[in-house]
Amino acid sequence: METSWKAHEEAARRPKxxxxxxxxxxxxxxxxxxxxxxxxxxWRDLDPVLWELTHNPAVVLQTVSLARLEEVLDDPAAxxxxxELAAEKRRHQSAPAWFQQAYPQSPLGHVVFxxxxxxxxxxxxxxxxxxxxxxGDHLKAASxxxxxxxxxxxxxxxxxxRQIIEPxxxxxxxxxxxxxxxxxxxxxxxxxxxxxxxxxxxxxxSLWLRCWQVQVGRVRLLLLDTNDPANIxxxxxxxxxxxxxxxxxxxxxxxxxxxxxxxxxxxxxIKPDVCHLNEGHAAFAVxxxxxxxxxxxxxxxxxxxxxxxxxxxFTTHTAVxxxxxxxxxxxIERYLTxxxxxxxxxxxxxxxxGRLNPDDTNEPFTTAFLAIRGSGLVNGxxxxxxxxxxxxxxxxxxRWPLAEVPVGYITNGIHTPGWDSPEVDALWTEACGKDRWxxxxxxxxxxxxxxxxxxxxxxxxxxxxxxxEYIRRRYARQLAALGxxxxxxxxxELFDPRALTLGFARRFVPYKRPxxxxxxxxxxxxxxxxxxxxxxxxxxGKAHPADTSGQALIREWVQYINRYQLGRHVIFLSDYDMxxxxxxxxxxDVWINTPRRPWEACGTSGMKVLVNGGLNLSVLDGWWAxxxxxxxxxxxxxxxxxTDEGATDDREAAQLYDLLEHxxxxxxxxxxxxxxxxxxxxxxxxxxxxxxxxxxxxxxxREYTEACYLPAAAAYHQRxxxxxxxxxxxxxxxxxxxxxxPQVRFGQLEVTTTEEKHQYTVEVHLGDIDPGEVAVExxxxxTEAQQMSVATAAAGDGAFYRYTAIVPASRPAGDxxxxxxxxxxxxxxxxxCGLILWQR
Length: 840
Hints:
Strand content: 15-25%
Helix content: 40-55%
């Protein structure tokens, strides 16, 4: 019988000790190694060069020779270390974590977290930037805290664009292939050993989705891709590029993520209580979830959606309306007519779910609107972004004050163990213990506060040495790739570990104003080249391949460096990726962020420097608007939104230069007789102790659990369990109220004012609506609405009720206005019923 080539390969790589290989494979395919670095020595010993370049154990394990593998495993110390790591992994995964200890009888059985991208490791390049950063760090924090959570995303054959910057500053885009065999992923298989594949029927054909899994400590990430041989060639590329292709490809990716993702969960027997949409890309999942429930309960789709939406959470990361995904109606009809029919919906009714105005046949379909209409909770990702989001989504809730638009906020956090340097990790362990990020963080502030000035500053000095060495090596490879001779020697003395190092790295797009520092080029040149107080600047960032304006910003920086011959003071590192990010946030002294307020939804990059003792110099936008105090860093702008962009840019650029020249640089170089910058270290200590716990993914994941997951699970179960008794009755009563609402009107209003109080009496005509179905309130902007009580009632055809309320006379009587709104026990107002009427 002929043996396959694969069997030959496996036989050739079969070691003398298969158990050791099994343990190594298990460790290599659990991304906990990306933040728990206990196994790093093993991979480095196997192939130090490949490990340095890739930080990918799966590649190292696949590439290393059998002889080298056995040589390392024959070392008793290495074998003992491997067994200890495997035992520790098993102990960690079986021990009760924060969630099990805090909520042993929780109604929350399972959460699924949908995201278009996940930034977990450079070994799995399926991310672009901030959205993926938040998703990846959320999964890691969920593992630390023991949350019952599973991620769902897409496996991209090429991922996001990689970048080459030519000597003149032009960006060149390349797309290396993500060979699955080199990634820390494994195929999902059925009980019979067959590769699990999901079918999504599209017009005239089936789209087949291959299924993969990634272990992330205690949690799993499930991935789908369309590169299945059963698909026609053009469809095999649907999951080719992240944010690549046109509108049609984007829609198909979102169908794969939302519909295919939910079907994958069903195939695995996962029945989540809570579905968390990380942006609107997976909004179709709420429809597939409702469809599943409809079939199981044999109820209409509208009822199934009313039940399941209670268990759905939508997190928006978008700060401008243009950032939402909009799809032409004809494209939706082309791909989703059959799907709408399965739901029992007409295409106009289906399109209405994603429109602001359901009757406007020309309005595009917006998945963010669908996500809101299919969710029981909605949140932004910082306090300021919550305010911005209420303005963006306000039109969905006409006549409701912005303060009552049902969008809250949970400020993002970063997974601190994944972003700290070895030197700073040792310091945190010394100050706060090994398990410091596993609980509720009470000990963090006093722990860091007790560290001496000498210890804190030595940590920064030690980190800086390794950081500059990494920058030199990376920049040398960049120059060599451009064909520059003797690149390694040219970078031997690049940068000084003792000099003030500024960092600016992010997506290059105009609203982030990456060129604000170039507003006064001569002044910047003087700052950078001061021989007595040297300053060095590291830049990095990609522009989208289709964004010519962003690419022009990169070109402007490179040309500035060349024109002023600043190569020893400023470098632009190409191909900004997760590995570069890790080193930058560990090594820079000051992280600069200059977005145009309020367009930065959160901006987690600056959070990553906190744990490492770096400081922030940022516009008061996103997270920094709630984090900033004078003792922890520096702020640009005055917290307002300028109407003249050019004038605002000039003013904030001047402030940026002033802060550098008169505060930041002098403070860094003002040393005591031990060489310690005491004021700088005090600022480091304040930033580390006050902000690191507050802006950690530990905090944000616990906040999502307590403010969203637990209430959403309880609400979903309450609706589901009570539907055949009181639940459906309340829902039907709400639909009847909607039909009868035109009967509601106000009558006469009387206001009596004394020196101490205002008394309001208003007539309310409800027709045949029961008064218990409405709330009559007295509202004034900036105050909580006060319930008005029924004073008298009149029967008959002209039935009306008199409602009354008394408020202090501290505000003018004209500030208050009576209003009538719907109220319902099971259903939230105004998210699920926005009926409201004002007296004027």
